[in-house]
């Protein structure tokens, strides 16, 4: 069975909720899903996955959240060739317009360094996922699964 692993970190609960919607979306497509918080994983978390998903918020002036820093550094050293990846970012464009979802785009670049294949454009969500965002999350999951071949 195809294994999807979702790594996430959350401060206000918005990204945790998004990661739950991602889990539901992939499970609805009959895939096995493991979802773990950043504090509980190491850089090799995606090594046995077919699909690697990161869900993150952006800290301060565009930084990777503190709880994701070690994972962010470590995952770039992994060889994930043959795996698909996607990234989802949550943020507040009103308060952080210059850095909206910047950490998500940083993770996109980090995962590209592993040799994994980007399977969907990075999805950005304003704060908490609402109905139209959940539809976008479902479409994001379908787009990635379609690339499995």
TrEMBL record:
Names of the cofactor(s): FMN
Record-level Gene Ontology MF annotations: FMN binding; oxidoreductase activity, acting on NAD(P)H
Keywords annotated in UniProt: Electron transport, Flavoprotein, FMN, Transport
Entries under SUPFAM superfamilies matching the protein: Flavoproteins
Keyword DNA-binding appears in the UniProt entry: no
InterPro entries: Flavdoxin-like, Flavodoxin, Flavodoxin/NO_synth, Flavoprotein-like_sf
Sequence intervals crossing the membrane: none
Cytoplasm found in the keyword field: no
Occurrences of domain Flavodoxin-like (ranges): 4-145
Family: Belongs to the flavodoxin family.
Function: Low-potential electron donor to a number of redox enzymes.
Database matches in PANTHER family: FLAVODOXIN 1, FLAVODOXIN 2
Descriptive protein name: Flavodoxin
Native organism taxonomy: Bacteria, Bacillati, Bacillota, Bacilli, Lactobacillales
